[in-house]
Specification:
7 helices; Arc Repressor Mutant, subunit A; globular; mainly alpha; 3 strands
Length: 155
């Protein structure tokens, strides 16, 4: 498919999709967490988010869910362990694999942090109509699916 880039700036589109938006949301979320006394980064929150819905997964599963590489995920889990939010439990079937489990402290952070994250997302979407949000979601999901599919084919 040929795309006519003359009607918009591909550089602006790429910079928005590739990082500016994510960085702005992360920066805002980080500041709100700090203001509320929550010792967690937005990246760590993302890992916790997946654990809240699927506790007891392998590090590789977390990599796949978050699109993080293994070294980055190891660092995130190390730091979450230092915060007493998660623990590594050796797999019974394969000692080389650790199962990542929430601690009581980790579970207790969900009802505290989820409203904060939803509030920041609400700020980001405040001036958009419901229709604009729905269109943006469909477009971003489509872009993500296109790239995910091409990554899976080329790996």
């Amino acid at each position: 498919m040929d795309i006519n880039f003359s009607s918009f700036s591909p550089e602006l589109l790429f910079s928005m999709i590739s990082g500016k938006l994510s960085a702005a949301i992360s920066r805002r979320l980080y500041r709100v967490f700090r203001r509320e006394g929550i010792e967690m980064t937005p990246e760590q929150w993302t890992v916790m988010y997946y654990l809240w819905s699927r506790d007891g997964v392998t590090q590789q599963e977390l990599c796949n869910l978050t699109f993080k590489d293994k070294p980055s995920m190891t660092r995130l889990i190390d730091n979450l362990e230092k915060l007493s939010c998660v623990e590594r439990i050796p797999s019974k079937s394969d000692r080389r694999i650790n199962i990542i489990k929430l601690t009581d402290k980790g579970r207790s952070l969900e009802p505290v942090t989820r409203p904060i994250v939803m509030g920041v997302i609400g700020e980001a979407l405040a001036t958009l109509s419901q229709e604009d949000i729905e269109v943006a979601c469909r477009v971003l999901v489509c872009i993500f699916d296109n790239l995910r599919n091409s990554l899976e084919v080329n790996e």
